[in-house]
Records
---
Amino acid sequence: MTNSAPILFPSLLLLFILLPISTSEYTIGVNYGTVADNLPPPSQVAQFLKLKTTIDRIKLFDANPDILNAFSNTNISITVSALNSDILQLSKLPAAQSWIANYIVPFYPQTKINRIVVGNEIVAASDKNLNAHLLLAMKSLHTALQLVNITDIQVSTPHSLGILASSEPPSQGRFRRGFDRAIFSPMLKFLQETKSPFMINPYPYFGFLPKTLNYALFKPNLGVYDRRTKKTYTNMFDAMLDAVHSAMKRLGYGDVEIVVAETGWPSVGESNQPEVNLENAVTYNGNLVKHVNSGIGTPLMPKRKFETFVFSLFDENLKPGLTEERNFGLFRSDLSPVYDIGIMRDGRVSDERTLEL
Ligand SMILES: *[C@@H]1O[C@H](CO)[C@@H](O)[C@H](O)[C@H]1NC(C)=O
Ligand SMILES: *[C@@H]1O[C@H](CO)[C@@H](O)[C@H](O)[C@H]1NC(C)=O
């Protein structure tokens, strides 16, 4: 023992010096879904996120007043949602004014609400009536905000990638016929004029095949070459963003900002889903957070940053469907991490599953 001590000592010292440096901290947004009966009260969640994590923005699937209240003075930015079922009403200005009076004015600006999203994945669901009212609702809410002199809350709506007719190669991305000029041209014009982002929910998890698993997980792979642009894609996330960008650019709106409203990978699945496991969830979300914080951008949008919201903050035990649906969370209901992706403030969590990037 005594003989080895002088050798051991310097290496231990090195370890202590390196540890805080190797604990990278990234900022990220999370979707705060609440389809569960075991979640901590919003005030506890707000304090936890503020004090223990580097999460600096959340997205709600509703405009829950208890949550909006709990996040006052936390400096955490909040995207609130108007429900799909409210869209028809909200297309009329008086209803939009009441909605703003009920769900925004009482909380703003102590609660840092910075965006309202109208519905979720409406366009690709192809309900003609809702699609005809969606932009009207967005415009009414924007006008209602102006009427109460609120000028720093954006209005947008998140889309699934089902809005695209083609996405491969990324340079050939285009919106579905019938959606492009009728829905997306006027919507993108509104977003451009109001300096608001186009929002998408890209999920490589729902798009990979066994042979493209590494490509979906941002792991080393041969890449996918787009011969039209001579760009090589090393991950599916970039390819999805660039396909959307190509579709937007085709309509003349390549400069509108893109926000990733949802993306993620479940950590538990059914026994016949070998690609659903903790390791792949850590790999996808960890590499995602690193990638979107890097400032590298994508092959067609170099150096652009994409505000990104991981799905989801919590495992939600009341979600119907496959096991995976209840296991997209970064945290359990007792606030312990399911796994860490470099977003804990107090350095590394004592969990052997901590990600080594
Ligand atoms: C609030 O957050 C913003 C980033 O969203 C940051 O620039 C600012 O310094 C923060 N303010 C406080 C008081 O922490
Ligand atoms: C909005 O601002 C204008 C100009 O400063 C002011 O006349 C008006 O009363 C304000 N409206 C509200 C609802 O605060």
Note: DSSP finds ten helices and 13 strands in the chain.
---
Amino acid sequence: MAKKDIDWSNLGFGYMKTDYRYVSEFKDGKWDDGKLIDDDMIVMSECACVLQYAQTCFEGLKAYTTEDGKIVCFRPDLNAERMADTAKRLEMPVIPTDKFIDAVVQTVKANADWVPPYGSGATLYIRPYMFGKNPVIGVKPADEYEFRVFTTPVGPYFKGGAKPITITVSDFDRAAPRGTGNIKAGLNYAMSLHPIMEAHRNGFAENMYLDPATRTKVEETGGANFLFVTKDGTVVTPKSDSILPSITRRSLMTVAEEVLGMKVEHREVLFSELGDFAECGLCGTAAVISPVGKIVHKDGEICFPSGMEEMGPTIKKLYDTLTGIQMGRIEGPAGWVKEIM
Ligand SMILES: *Cc1c(COP(=O)(O)O)cnc(C)c1O
């Protein structure tokens, strides 16, 4: 084994082709055994269901090297469960959890040379995904699918410290009540491209989406859940049926409650109460938590007391504890860290 010659700590978040990817095909009502291949190209019909009707979904997780030199990933069983929920909502076949985890393990092992070393801050991003492949012109689900897993090394999310970001409140809605906001479907991202580009053009890092029905409650951003901290140190995360259940956010809530002994609330969060919070962050696999310093909206702005220079103290403690568990420096709840090799 020879690690690739990459300047790990200066990697960005982009796609880089690695040596192997996993593919399993669903045909005649069943999955085949699946295999690793080196060809990164996919050839399919011009009328493939994914191309015409966007029948596709994905997951995202990371593999990384722990302090004692093991390659691990974090709670892949929850990614498998979430992909199963997504698949059902999109009339796609479910990948059994053991097949999903086996595919992740095989792909990471085959690309072990691409897993960044401990301490570099970089990780190997893992992208499991599935799409409807056969030609479909009358609207209906495909009969044939591919489930694939590829990996790509990604750099440290925060280069030179986690500076709080400024976000804005989008005039667009992310997900309808009783729609598809709670599943990880490509379609939720297609419609978010215009709002995020508008936000960037206006100088903001991210969009806060409100609930479409009343526009009074906080939902999430395009790709991360919110976490707030009250002035007396309670961790509050918004609850709604149209929020994607972030594994990072759920893990942070468990860490807050069970490891750090903090008070945790998972409840509806009104936009009008945001000014009462001391800290705000965005939770997702990519950054674990990105601190938010300011929210700009049409009637003014909300500046969190934690400021624009560094993470607030509670978010910092949550961040350090969860990343410590992930990296094997702190003992976490049983079964959270899955050893790959
Ligand atoms: C993937 C995703 C998240 C973050 O989920 P994690 O499991 O923590 O990576 C949050 N919101 C949306 C909309 C997402 O697609």
Note: The pocket of pyridoxal-5'-phosphate is lined by residues 60, 184, 220, 223-225, 244, 246-249, 283-285 (CB under 6 Å).
---
Amino acid sequence: MLPSVIVVLMLISFTCGENPAIQVILTDKGLQYGKHVGAGWIQDKLESITFPDISGEIDISIFGTVYYTLTGMTITKCDFPEPSVEFYQDSTGFKTSISGLSVALTGGWRTQFGIIHDGGSFDMAIFNVDVTSVVELGMDPDGHLSVTSVRCEAVVGDVDIQFHGGASWIFEPFVDHYKGRIRGEIEGKICPNVEESIINLESHLQAMKVSFDVDQYLTLDLPLTGSPVVDNSSLNLGLKGEFYSIKTHAEPPFEAQPFTMPEQPDYMLSVGLSEFTLNSASYAYYSAGLFQALINDSMVPPSSPVHLNTSAMGPFIPQLPKMFPGLLMDLQVYAREVPLFSFQPGAVALGFQGAIKAFAIQPNGTQTPLFKLNVDSKFSGKVWIADERLKGSMAMNNLTLTLVSSEVGTFKTDAIEGLARMGATLAMARLNEKLGKGVVLPRMKDVQLVNTVLEMDEGFIAISSDAQLITDRGFN
Ligand SMILES: *[C@@H]1O[C@H](CO)[C@@H](O)[C@H](O)[C@H]1NC(C)=O
Ligand SMILES: *[C@@H]1O[C@H](CO)[C@@H](O)[C@H](O)[C@H]1NC(C)=O
Ligand SMILES: *[C@@H]1O[C@H](CO)[C@@H](O)[C@H](O)[C@H]1NC(C)=O
Ligand SMILES: *[C@@H]1O[C@H](CO)[C@@H](O)[C@H](O)[C@H]1NC(C)=O
Ligand SMILES: *[C@@H]1O[C@H](CO)[C@@H](O)[C@H](O)[C@H]1NC(C)=O
């Protein structure tokens, strides 16, 4: 008993108090579109459905027991009215109903009555089937979405059966008599089938990954942080949305802050992305030591007026060409602190605090340290969605260089700061060319996002969108 209580408490302490960094909201519009697509899909599937044989026995009081088997049943016609589905607050889930479903079937029959075997074909019509199913959504200990059936009701309005061939004329009169029972048997089969498909869905959900490797360095954790929230117009899922370094798996020294998504009932779904998600990626790269680069002269475009050569440094560090003439230089650039993004209404800000260590490369290959500069820079950017692509632009707002230490004596940083700004401006122009082209919005296998809008808010980005099936035939 006690161990299980401890486990429960541990789970609570893990999940409570952790704010989701990603929120996904499904609106009623999205639910209705999903239902419409799902209904079309079910209708398509119904036509090709095959039923297992049904066997049973009927006691016909004066004659004895007749054993029967209905085989090879296929649907010949199906009247599939549009089901209804709604968010169901009472059970944190959905309520789905279909009313007035009618199905015509055809198949074969066999009977055994004593030593008499008989057989033929039959047509069956099942009229006015009403089914109501209520499912509850929840979260399992691993943060998967879970779904359970909490209620199912099925009513079959009427059944009509016509037997052909064999000695069907003998038992045809009994059909009316046993219609109630046949109706009951069909009724009794519907809910177990519904429940089975819900269990099936649940096992798919259980098998879903909640952690994804993004590249060789980063993994993204996406378990639910709490139970789904359902109100009468939406379903809200909170996901952890945290990147980790695959190497260190270190927890960043900052936490996800809560945020409230604006209601967007005119879109099918909304996704809110906290700045925490981006910053956790930044921290993961930082903790794995990936925010560092070595810049050498072969990376400087040949057309550049300045090269990483001590002889070319005269205008910036007058004593350098005298102390170390004609040597190539290396620059070690790295982040001193985690570069952090901050989302603000209409803009994103990024602070970068880094350092540059400069070395002269001696003819024998030895690297002689020259000086170390701190770089403090601020960037601001915008992101937007156009032509179904996520686009952006970045600008550098500030860049200051401070001399931290020097093996070549002190020097003024103004000139070299101007050079760094020029370099950064060139780099930003190249970056903006890429950002301006943008990246295609993520698409699922057969579903595409349309009418997508993006809004930057305090601490998060809200993306709202409609979805559209790419093929007309449903997702196969
Ligand atoms: C949904 O709930 C809100 C308040 O909880 C209420 O104002 C609104 O009328 C409800 N809408 C429907 C369609 O029931
Ligand atoms: C500069 O660095 C690149 C990549 O690290 C390397 O391939 C190249 O040989 C280096 N060039 C010089 C001149 O050191
Ligand atoms: C560095 O620049 C000087 C002067 O322009 C040149 O003579 C020298 O060859 C350059 N060094 C290297 C290794 O390219
Ligand atoms: C390489 O050359 C530098 C400068 O000439 C010298 O100080 C250093 O000792 C040399 N290193 C080796 C390993 O030869
Ligand atoms: C640029 O940064 C320096 C030092 O961090 C600061 O004093 C200055 O006000 C900043 N300028 C702008 C325009 O933000």
Note: Residues 168-207 form the longest helix (40 residues).
---
Amino acid sequence: MKKIQMLDLSPEVKLLWDKINKAIQEVVLSGQFILGPNVKAFEQEAANYLGVKHAVGVNSGTDALVISLRAAGIGPGDEVITTPFTFFATAESISRVGAIPVFIDIDPKTFNLDPGLIENAVTTRTKAVLPVHLYGHAADMKTILAQAEKYRLVVVEDVAQAFGAEFKGKKLGAAGNAGCYSFFPSKVLGAFGDGGLIATNDDHMAETARMLRAHGSTKRYYHEVIGYNSRLDEIQAAVLRVKLPELERSNEKRRQVARRYNDLLDDIPGITTPYEAPCAKHVYHQYTVRISDGKRDSVQKYLAGQGIETRVHYPVPLHKLPVYRGNRLILSKVEQAAAEVLSLPIWPDMENELQDYIADMIKFAINL
Ligand SMILES: *Cc1c(COP(=O)(O)O)cnc(C)c1O
């Protein structure tokens, strides 16, 4: 029986092996492992790619969020409006700086926060809005930015799943005060370990983020604030410098795989394939379908029995987790999504036969 995992990183590594190998060896021989020439060069290359003034490399996507919120002056008692349909790190970062995540419901088409609900959630303590570009598809930044301007809110974007994705012809992450990216190995631009990046056009934000990532100091041993040990390391930066020039191509391959899935799955009753807004360019970090009529779990179980790995992103909306349950919210659209979504295997070089097999098995399972 074939075993199909969510993600196969080996074709890309094989393709780039010589360059990656050379880049890693150079770092090792240089003896400079932390904040050296590769981090500096990668920050510049990433800033150019994203179309922003500054990029600051950090330890992880989570730290990118924490440091951006801190640098934007968000702290104890402040409220930050966000989506409950995301990886835990989004809300965890808000809590880590002492602020309170305020969850609002999602747009059921894109799974991203519904900006029409921001207005109702704003209080005198609201300081920021933190949209997530889930699965690699843009949240409605036009409306989010308009609401943020109206209520004078800071905008920090969680772009962990959407490096290279676009909204109205521009790369995501540059529209608000800061964009936060993750280089966790499974992300569309993955390192060989943890890593993250803050993108911003704001000089003060960039300067503060650089200070916070290095124990709150700009000058060695002269610490100005309590900061973090959160640097992107040289080996990760060297690997990312090899991978970044390939990203447009690999994201385009992901889009091709996604379109092929759409063709195979669109006609199956009970399945809703992902929506891609005309003004957005999806990067399909995840290819996530909806399976209605309460059949999601049985389809997933059947696929697992056929050797096909799938994932539910995410089974528990964050407002339902014990740590956030105090709020007693009822967010019906997100709760329905959590019961219906299923992410299928996807990677840039995924073979047609694997997709055909998965589609056949889904067709069979849904009619059981
Ligand atoms: C992966 C992810 C993060 C966290 O990134 P790390 O690099 O793993 O810390 C944050 N938010 C979302 C939506 C993510 O998918």
Note: The chain has two domains: 10-104+111-245, 247-366.
